[in-house]
Amino acid sequence: MTLAPDRRTGPVAGSPAGPTEPAPVLSVRDLSVSFPSEAGPVEAVRGIGFDLLPGRTLGIVGESGSGKSATALAVMGLLPPTARLGGRILLGGRDLAAMDDKGLSRVRGKDIGMVFQDPMSALTPIFSVGRLLSQALRVHRELSKKDAWEQAVELLDLVGIPDPRERAKSFPHEFSGGMRQRVVIALAIANKPSVLVADEPTTALDVTVQAQILDVLRLAQRETGAGLVLITHDLGVVAGHADDVAVMYAGRIVEHASVDELFRRPTMPYTARLLASIPTVDSGVERPLIPVGGEPPSLVGLPGGCPFAPRCAVALDVCRTTEPALTEPALTAPALTAPGGQHGHVGHVGHVACHRAQEIADGTLDPAGRAAAVPPARAGERTAGEVVLRVEDLVKTFPVTKGALLKRRVGTLHAVNHVSFELRAGETLGLVGESGSGKTTTLREVLRLRAPEGGRIEVAGTDVATLRSAAQVRELRRDVQIVLQDPTDALDPRLTVFDLLAEPLQAAGADRTAIRSRVTRLLDLVGLDRTMGDRFPAALSGGQRQRVGIARALAREPKILALDEPLSALDVSVQAEIINLLARLKRELGLAYLLVAHDLAVVRYVSDRIAVMYLGHIVESGATEEIFARPRHPYTQALLSAIPVPDPERERHRERIVLAGEQPSATRLPEGCVFVDRCPLYREADESVRTRCRTERPATVGAPDGSDHQYACHAV
């Protein structure tokens, strides 16, 4: 992978290709993309360039709005008609930027394929997946219907769709999210393109399904020999699957290097801060998370100077007046220790747009500014208080109905099955598991403050089944509040921040003086400037909106916060800020957190205890470090092994347990262990154990060391 000329550099920024290096399959030169707006043109991409070699993977990373997806859409020729495109996009000697839509239609799907973030947006719901694949083949090749169908079945088999001949007749809505993404990958590689573009292909998937999809992408690349442009926000995915990395900020590539060099010794301060803001699962030692800080700049009328200067911990006066060119610094000394603990060494550092790149490359300057970081609280400093939430044998089912007009019950979905746990003041309990495991349903049952279908829920010492009036429910509700996944959906866009925070206080009958004082206190508590009170949610960034959501949840001084995927809608740079905020609030206010999250790196960083759920059952629970260090249940082992680690060396050589198939439906639970159909230990066990797994539900047992580590498995 070499870097093409940047219009700010003058000469080519990058080493020339060696005499034996293959020709690029894709060359981007001085690419620019702008969109019209009322405030002026939005310069989404500003003169970037790169070469993609066959069989290589270029990872493109950066915050939302950095220009990643606009670059992908420009390469694919999928920009809206109002967009202005400049530069050249060379594919097989043809300039895609100069083609009309008819010409691009002959290229897309044949020479270049795309894997979209949302598979449903790429699949026509009224056609079977076999027909979709057949059409994709026949558009570009002379094939009979029969031959195209047979090749479609072969493609489904290649990407791991079970029983492909029968499933080819199925429609997209009959597939799970992971299976739909496999179909999209099959569509992308149907005609063996020379270039694949994957735009956030695993964002909406569980960690186990993500591992499967990344393996399928790697297989697809191997089968076609294509170069892959992988756009993602997950630096662990980049570490494990990219050969080279381009970091984008404010529409430009600000750092470009091989994946090993970039993770070992980031030279651009923005890259260093991105890496320093990621919670990792590679050790039990909590290092401080260092947020990027500030907000990305508006791409309308960018001022002079480096766009990152207002957020940079090492900026100079020249950074605010002159935008740096993309250059290769000369190395004269070992670099500082990189964020993951790796030690730098003298070697090629890639290309970087930074006025202080030489000092950073020499090792005399820390680009992340770690000296200013506040270390996290050590595990030994945490103290758990009284029990504020007790759940015993919780059961929740839903009827499965059939019929459009006259609905009849045809089955039962067992969402939560005899789930029990306790949560203490000052403690965080993380509920983890794949989608459909019952995490969110458990959370909702707690928040309902009504007698459950089965079992018992006790909040702050009160059995919710004993609540007889709406007044009693309102009084207890102040003790348990929720922070939702998407802060935009959680806040009324018609109210200012002040009114949003005042609303729950007004409902409780507080007077104006008390409300004004409490709102001011809440803004200070979550780290927002008091002037934010006059703004509407639309004028806030995602991180600021989530801080408002947290402040609103804290308005009436609750004892428990239910955190429903509180970070999944945020950029990685903002996640660190919210993680640090939640840790501080728990420490200062003695809050208890019930956390539902799919990012197990985040769960490890913030949780004291973990409960692993599968098909409505808790299959393992215990102290966080005990679970991560010594997982006993095979499902927990598979979950942990699938978490991407933002370190290329460890990510590419560690052992993985890839689960076969999909999580079965909760309408037809197995008679024995609910995990039996996917369990790797079951396949290796002797017949007596296998019989127990098929016919007997395993009891929860404690670890031999007498700790609170518990698991339910016959084969362990």
Structure description:
- A hairpin with a 2-residue loop joins strand 9 and strand 10.
- The chain is globular.
- The chain has an eight-stranded mixed beta sheet with strand order 17-18-19-14-20-21-23-22, with helices on both faces. It has a seven-stranded mixed beta sheet with strand order 6-7-8-3-9-10-11, sandwiched between helices.
- The chain has a domain of 253 residues: P-loop containing nucleotide triphosphate hydrolases (Rossmann fold).
- It is α/β, with parallel strands linked by helices.
- Helix 3 packs across helix 4 and helix 17 packs parallel to helix 18.
Descriptive terms for the model:
single chain; 716 residues; alpha/beta; Rossmann fold; 8-stranded mixed β-sheet; 7-stranded mixed β-sheet; 24 helices; globular
